[in-house]
Design brief:
This protein is mainly alpha-helical. The two termini are 18 Å apart. Helices cover 77% and strands 0% of the residues. The protein folds into two domains: 120 residues; 148 residues, no CATH class.
Length: 269
Amino acid sequence: MPLLWLKVALALYGVGLVYALAALVRRAALPRLTMPVVGLGVVFHFVSLVEAAIQAGGITPASIHHSESLLGFLIITFFMAVYTRYRVTAPALFVFPVVFLLCFAAAIGQAPPQIDSPVLRSGWIFVHIALIFAGYAALFFAFIASVLYLLQENNLKAKKSVGASRLPSLQVIDEIGYRSLLLGFPFMTLGLLAGSVIAQVEYGPAFFLDPKILLALLMWSVYIVLLYTRWNNGWRGRKAAMLSAAAFVAALATWAANYVSEVHKFVVQ
């Protein structure tokens, strides 16, 4: 049943994907029907995650497919929150394709393995993963805001009224990016701290030499630099957008390390 609900959510997300791609090609706004359809997909997605946790015997995602589904859910939830607050649909051009691909990868995976390790059954592991993924979602939105900012800035400089009118104002975009960073940083920090405590207790100091851990620390360092430059140097606009892109690249590298790490990775089915 979890896979069935995920496929239903995927089909609904697919409607959003089609509309997003059509809006991108035709340079038009998303139809009003899109958001309710995607919102219904979020509901089915949530049901899928809950039933998958019950079936696996624990709330911790035990496979790469589970983790992809959880990350996709957090990203689309973050998007819905931003839409509710600002009523902007431009981020959907990035969010819908990414969420659809994550859910598609999760849907074609096999049934998740049972969680046999006491460590994986620990609530702290779920806290670690949930916080880190929430930080990923917020950082992804900061990256989207940076891209939209650069696009809108170029449109305004080139006096492209049509392209500029489809995007939020520079002030709104900058606010979305900044608030995404402020929200994501504590999630990322607390998630790393929770993971560090678990790793120290269960595996010892050698665990911290794993490539994924090192990349995660690099990502967090870039995050710190990004926030510091905004708070103290007043970096906004293009400079902040470029740093947000750098932090997102570091996050992608950390996620990719799931496939090469020897001791810190999800099961690939």
